[in-house]
Records
---
Amino acid sequence: MSSSLLPLTSPFTSTNTQLTFKARTNQTQGFRVTCNSAQDDQADKKLILPESQKLVVPNVDRRNLLVGLGGLYTAVNLPGAMAAPITAPDITSICKDASAGIRNQEGAIRTRKCCPPSLGKKIKEFQFPTGNSVRKRWPAHAGTPKQVDDYRRAIQAMRDLPDDHPHSFVSQAKIHCAYCNGGYTQVDSGFPEIDIQIHNSWLFFPFHRWYLYFYERILGKLINEPNFALPYWKWDEPRGMPIPEMFVPETVNGKPNSLYDVYRDANHIKERIVDLDYDGKDKDIPDFQQVQCNLATVYRDLVRNGGDTLSFFGGEYVAGDSPVGNSDPSVGSVEAGSHTAVHRWVGDPKQPNQEDMGNFYSAGYDPAFYIHHANVDRMWKLWKELRLPGHVEPTDPDWLNASYVFYDENEDLVRVYNKDCVDLGKLKYNFIENSKEVFPWRKSRPPPRRKSSQVATTSEVKTVDKVRFPVRLNEILKVRVKRPAVNRSDEEKEKENEVLLIKGIKYDSGKFVKFDVFVNDKLKEGEITTPCDPEYAGGFAQIPHSDMGSMFMKSSARFGLTELLEDTNTEGEEYATVTLVPRVGCEDLTVGQIKIELVPVRKV
C-alpha cells in the first residue's frame, strides 16, 4: 500500500524530556577507558565494566560532570562512553580560524577567519517570540513585487553594514563556516581538542533551523519590517525547480542586485532545472524527465529513506564524538540527497574549492544558500506532517539538549536548544504553499517494475560474507546480502522497516564524493537503471568539510527497502542484490560493511 496517499494534518508538538545520565553501550560491550597512546589490543590499559552495570549519578547535571572530568576525558580518550549533548561554547571568546574542508587553502576565495565579532556580552537564554503575528515564508519563484523588493532591500542593508558588525552579510556568512569548518570545539563539554561539526548527524536540521530563524529576524529589523519572512526555493515543485529569477540578473534598475553571486555555476543559472540527484555531471535529459526524477528524489528523501527517526535526521552525535573518528555516524536522507545535490549544482566548479555553495566554508556568501536551506527546513515540517509511522523527532536528551549560540536581532548572544525548535507555532513562522496540487512529489513513488523486463539473474553474484571488508569503491561493487525476513505481512511492515545499511564509509572529506546504490536490478544488459526507477535506493554524497589534519572521515548511510522490494517484485527473495556505483571522488573511498536490518518504527 502506498503511503503517499495519507492525509497531511498535524502541526509540530514540542517535547520536554528531563535530562538524564546514562551509559552508552551501542558501540562497545561496556564502559571502556583507553590511553591515547595505547593500541586497541593492549587490554591491560583498559578498564571494562559489564554492559549491564549502570552509572547512577542522582541530582548531577551531565554537562557539569563532564566538564569536571575534562582532564580525565582528554587524557584517556573516552569518546561516547558517557553521553552528553553537544554544547557550543561562547562563540566570541573560544573560536579558531577555519581550515576544515578547504582543500586549496592558498587559493581560497573567502576568508578562513570565521570567528564572530565580540561585543563583550554574556550569553542569554532564549525567549520565545510573543504576540500573534506569524512570519509567512514564501515560494521564491512566486513572490509579490513587495516581497521581492523587501528581500532585496534587506540583503542590501545587511551588505552595507561594516564587516565586523554581528549582523553584517559577512558575519552572517561566517556562521556556517565556523560551525561547519572547525571554528569551535567541544570545550564546554570537556573536550577542548575535539571540533564541533553540525553536518552528518542529527544536529543538521535543528542547527540550520536556528541559523535561519535569527537570520530572518535580523533582516526584518534592518528594514523595519516586523513581519518580514524569507523566501524558500521550492525545488520540490516543477515551477520552482529553476533557480529563482530574482537571483539571476547582475543589476536591477541600474543598481547591483544584492541577491547576485558571481561564484555560481554559469551553466546552471538561467532557466535550468535543478538536478536533485546531481553528481557533478549534467544528465542531459529532457526537462520533463528531470522534473520526474526530482519529484522521485523528494519522495525518496521524505518517505522511502526517511522511514524512521535516525534515517531522516542522521545518526547520534554527542559530546566526545569526533567529526573525524566518530565510529558510527550516519547522514540523514535529505542531507545526503537533495540538500547536497543543490549545494553542488549551484557552486562554481571553476573555483579552487567550488566556492561559494560547493563548499561549507563559503556557502553562506551566496544568498541562494539561505533560500535553499529554508526549503530544507520545510522538508522537516512536511516529513513530520505526513504522520507516517516513524516520522517523529528524536526524544533522546542528548538531542533535545544540544545547544548553539547565535547573535539575535538585538545583537545579544543567545543560547538555543534543539528541544525549543520543534514547534514552529512557538517560533512564530510558517510556510505559504502556492500550488493547487500542493505536493506533487507525494504521487511520485517510482512505478513498479514490470516482471517481464526482469530477465537478468543474480545467483552468480557473490554473497556479502565472501567479500573482504573494507573494500575500495574505485569500481562498481555488486554483492548479495541476506535479508532478515521475507514476504512480511502488512502488519509486520507497520512495526518494522527493512533498511539497508552501508557502514564504515571512509572517504576523503576534502573533496566532493558521491556513489549511488541500486537494489535488485535485473534489467537485461544494456538497459540503464536511472534515479527515476524503483531499483534506485539512493545515493551517498558529501560536500567538502574535513579536518585538514586528518583528511579521511567516516560515515554511514541508510536506505529504506520496504517499498523498493514491493516495487521490484522481490519481497520473497532470501537475498537482496546490492550494487554500489561510484560517481565522483570515490577513488580512495572504502566501505566497511553492508547489511540489512529490521528497524522498529515508533508510532506518531
Note: The radius of gyration is 24 Å.
---
Amino acid sequence: MEDQLKEVPELTTHDLQSLLCSSERDFLIRNNGHQVKVESLKGKKVGLYFSASWCGPCQSFTPKLVKVYNELLSYSKFEVVFVSADEDNESFNSYFSKMPWLAIPFSDSETRDGLDKLFDVSGIPHLVILDENGKELTNEGVEIIKERGVEGYPFTPERIAELKEQEEEAKRNQSLKSILVSQSRDYVIRSDGKKVPVVELEGKTILLFFSLVTYKHAFTPKLVEVYRELRKEGENFEIVMIPLDDEEPSFKKEFEGMPWLSLPILDTTCEKLVRYFELSALPTVVVIGPDGKTLHPNVAEAIEEHGRKAYPFTPEKFAEIEELEKKKRETQTLESVLVSENCNFVIGNDGVKVQVSELVGKNILLYFSAHWCPPCRAFLPKLIEAYHEIKAKDDKFEVIFISSDRDQTSFDEFFSTMPWLAIPFGDNRKGSLSRLFKIKGIPMLVAIGPTGKTVTTEARELITYHGADAYPFTEERLKEIEEQYKKMAEEWPKKVRHALHKEHELVLTERVGYNCDGCNGMGRGWSFLCKECDFDLHPKCALVDKDEDMDNANEIKGDVKGEDEEKNPKEGWSCDGDVCYKA
C-alpha cells in the first residue's frame, strides 16, 4: 500500500481504490460499524478529512463541516472520508461518533499514514477535496468551508474565483442585504429564536457586533446599556451580533440575556464578514448607515469611552467629541483627573490617606500595573530605582499605583513592595482613568506635570531607556538627553569587537529603539549593531570586556523569566513580550 502511494504524487488524478483500500480491505466504515464499498464513491466528489479528537482546532471545525455536509446531502454527490490521527481506538470511536460520513478504519494505520505522506499533511484539521475523477481540486478545504460554507460547492477554482468576484461586486455596491443575506437565509434571529427579515432593518443605523458571547467581556454590559438607552429614546437603530462561537448550547444560553438580534451561530456569513471587514480584534462594532454603507470600521472604543453620546457614530459626531476632548485636555488639572465624587484621596502602603489636593503642583506618574502581570513585575525594580533617584533630587514628585489585580490580597502583596502611593483596590476611579488615558496594556506610566496636564503616556518607555535621567519626561528633557548622547557618541569608537558576538564587528549606529542582546534591556539612541545578524549591544555593554558582567546579566534574565512563568494572566488579559493587553 505504502509503495503504491509513493508513486501517486507525480499524477494529477488519484485512483480511489488504490488510495483508500488495502490488500485486506476494500471498504470504508460508518460510525455504526456498517461497511461501505469504496467503489460506491465513483462519480462523487470526495473530501479527505485529516483530523483528531485531541486537536482543539479540529473540534471547532468539525461542526462546521458537519453542517455543510448535511446541507449538501439533498442535492449533491459529495462524500467525506475521515482520516484519523487519534492515538487509540477508543478516542477514534468517540470522535467518529459525531461524524455523519465515512472513515478509514482506525486499525488500518498503514493507509492512514500513507495518505498523510501523499498529501503532505503538516497540520490538522486538513481537508483535501477530489473531484469525480479523483483529481485534486484543493488542499485548502478547511479555509473554503470556514469562509464559504455550502456556497463554496462544488469547490472548484472557478467557483471560488466566482465567489471572490461576487464579494468585490458586493463591496462596490454594498447594501444591508449584501452584508447579511445569504443564499439560504434572508433573516436574523432574536434570542427567543424568532426570525426577523433583514428587509425590516433597511433604513436603520445598524451596529454589527462581532463577539465571542461565551467569553464574558466587560464591554458587553456597556453595549447593553447604550442599546437600551437608544431604544428607549426611539432612535432608528439596531444591533446585529455576529457570533464567532462554535458551541451552540453555550451560545444560546448567553444569547438569552441579550436584547439585540444575531446571525445564527455557525452561519457561514459570520466567517465571510470577518474577512469582509478585515477583523483584527474583539470586540469590534462596525457601523452601517441607513443607506447600507459602512460609516465606521469599529466604534467599540468610542462606545466604551463615551457611551450613548457617540451615537449616531457619524464623522460629524466624532469631530464634535474630539473638540470636547480637546477642551477637556486644555483645562485638565490633577484634581479633575484624580477626584471623583467623594473619592478625593489616595493611600500610602501603611493605609494612611493622602488628599489629592496635597499633590497639586507636583510631577506625578500614574502607574497602571498588576501583580499577575510578568512584564509589570519585571519593570517594577527599574521604576523603584528611578523613583528613589528622582525623589532624592526633587521632593515634588510622586508615583500613584493604579491596580488591575484580581483581589485585595494580591493588591496588598504587590503594593507592599512599592515606596509610593496608590488608589485603593476596587476604586471606581480605576475605570475612569483607564478610559481617560486609553489603557490597553500594562505596565503603563502616564506623566502628569505640575499644572495637572498630561506630559506623556509613554513614561514607561522613557524610564526603561533612560531611568531617572528622563525626569521630568518633557519633550525639552528628551532633546537634552539626545544632545548628551550625541556628544558621548563622538568619543566612542566607531567599531568594536565583543566576546558576545565574535562573528562580526559591531558598528556604532543611531537607533530608534532596540533590545540589547547583552543585558536584555531596552535601548534607544545609540547601539553597537551587527546589521547582518540583527545583534545589538548597549554602549555600556559593548564598551566593557568583562565576561562575568555578561554572565551576571544572563543570570538576571533567567531569574526574571523563571519568575514570569509562575504567574498566569488575569482573565480578560493576555501577555505578549513586555506588555499585557486587554483581550
Note: The first helix runs from residue 2 to 7.
---
Amino acid sequence: MKQSHRSTRIFILCLLAVSVLVPIVVLSGRIKHLTSDVSKETDALKLNSIEQEDGEGLKEPTLEVYKDEGGSTVSFSTYNESGKSEVSRNPGSNANLAEKNGSNHKAKKDNQQSQQEGIVSTSDGKEEFKQATVEHDQNARSLSRKEIDLKIQEMKDQVIRAKAYLNFAPPNSNSHLVKELKLRIKELERAMGDSTKVSELSRRALQRMRAMEASLLKASHVYPECSAMAKKLRAMMYNAEEQVRTQKNQASFLVQLAGRTTPKGLHCLSMRLTNSYFALQPEEREFPGQHKLHDPDLYHFAVFSDNILACAAVVDSIISTAMEPEKIVIHILTDSLNLPAIIMWFLLNPLRRATIQVQSIDSFDWMSTKYGGKMQWQSSSDPRYASPLNHLRFYLPEIFPALKKIVLLDHDVIVQRDLSGLWSVDMKDKVNGAVVTCREDEPSFRRMNMLINFSEPMVGRRFDVKACNWAFGMNLFDLQKWRRRNLTEVYHNYLQLVRNSSAYLDSYQAVIDCLFGCTSWYKGSKRPLWKAGSLPIGWVTFYNQTVGLDRRWHVLGLGHHADVKQRDIEQAAVIHYDGVMKPWLDIGLEKYKQYWRKHVKYDHPYLQQCNIHD
C-alpha cells in the first residue's frame, strides 16, 4: 500500500517538474535566438560604418530635381490623385545620377536640398489636390443647377400640355379628368414657385411631376388625336403673341403719355413761385449785371425751357463747373406762362458771380413782323414738337444780334466740366459744332433715313443717306457765319417745302401705330418729307454746315438707354437725358438720376412744400 502511494507521489512530482522545466527551456531558446539576431544586426551596422569610413567616394547619390537634355524631370516625391506620396523616376537617368556624385560635403548639401525640394513638392501636391477637389465640387453644383432648370422647364411643358387638354373638354365640364388636370396644374405651378425661391427642387415637386405625367397619359388616351393637339397649341401660341403685342403697345403708350405730362409737384412749384413773383414790386424783379448781356467777349449760353426744375438744374451745373463764373452769361427763353416762376426762382437763388437773363418768346415782336406767315410750325399731338420753343433755336442770330458765338443747351442736360474751351474750338469755317452720332454701337446712333423720307426724288438728290449725323443738346453756333449764309431763310424754305408737299407726320402717333411689324412710318398713302420735330429739319438746314466735336463734349442716351458706358459718363463734359425718361419723372432711369439730383436744391422750402424729394 505504501509502495503504491509512493509511486503515485513520484509520478505527480515528475509531471510538475516537466510542466515547469519545459516552458523554461522553450523561453530560453527564443531569447537566445533574439540575442543572436540583435548581435547580427549590430555587427552589420558596425560593418556598414567601417565601409562608409573606408569609401566615402562610393556613397550612393541621393535623388534630386534636375532636367536632362531631353527636358525630362525627376522629382523627389509627388502626390497622385488620391493624395498618396509616390516616387517618380525618369528611366534612363542612372548615367546622369552617376555624373552628379561628388565629395561627401557636396553629397550632404545635395541631400539637404533634395529633402527640401521633396517637402516643397509634397505641399504643392496637397494644394493641387485641394484645388482639384474644390473645382470638382463647383462642377457638381453647377450641374445640379442645370438639372433643376431642366426639370422646371419640363414642368412648364407639362402645364402647357395640361392646359391644351383642358381646352378639348366641353365648356363647364366637371369630369374627373378635368378636375385632376386642374389640380395637377395648381400643384406644379406652386412647386415651380417654391423652387424659384429656394433654388432647389424638393422631393415633393418631383412626385408632383410624376403625378402630372400620369394624368397627361390618361388625357392622351381620352384625346388621342395629334393633329387636333397641334392645332390647339398653335392657336394658344398665336393668342399669347397677340397678348404680348397688346401689352407692349400699352406700355409704350403709357411711357409716352408719362413723358408728356407735368408732375403734380412741378405744377405746385410753378404756382407758388408765380404767386411770390407778383407780390414783388417792379423794381425788385430785375437781375443784377444786365450790362453784360450783349458783351461778345463773354461766354454766353442759351437754354430754351418751360420747366422750372430743369432750368434750375442745368444753370446750377453750368455755374458750379465754371472756372471763371464771372464771365458766364446765361440766357433763358421761355413762354409767358412760366416766365414769372422762372424769374422768381433765380431771384430767390441768385447765381454766384454769373449773369442771367430770362425772356419770354412773346416779347419778340420782330418775329411776327419780319417773318409773318413763315412761322407756321407743324402740328402734333405731342406738345414737345408743337411748342414754339422747340423751333426757337433757328432764330438765334435775330435773338442775340450783338453776339458772335453762343452755346445752346437743352434743359435736360447736366454740365460736368468747364465749357469755356468750346470758344477756342476750330470750327473749320462751319456754323454748327456738334457731337456726331455715326457709330452704330452707340445708343445715340441715327441714320438720316430714319427721320427723313429718301424715297422723294428731291431729298435723294440733295442729301446723302450715309451722311454722318449729329445731335442737338449741346451745340456751338458761329452766329456771324450763320448771318452771312442766311441759314434762317434756308430753314423757312424747308418748312414751306414740307407744307406744300404733304402734312407732317405726328411722330408720337407713328411710334404707337408702327411699333411692331411696321414697314413704314407714314400715315395715309403719301409719306411726308420728314418726321415732326426740330432734329430732322435741323439736319437739312445745317447740312454741310456742321463740324464734329470730340465725343467727350457730349454724351447722349441717359433718357432712353440703360446701357450707356459708365466711363463715357464720367469723362463727358455734358450728359444728355434725351428721350422720354427724364430725370425729374418717375419713369426716369434711376441709375442716372444721381448726376441730376445733386444740382437740385431739395432742401428749398418751396420744394419741400410741394413734396419734391430726391
Note: DSSP finds 20 helices and 13 strands in the chain.
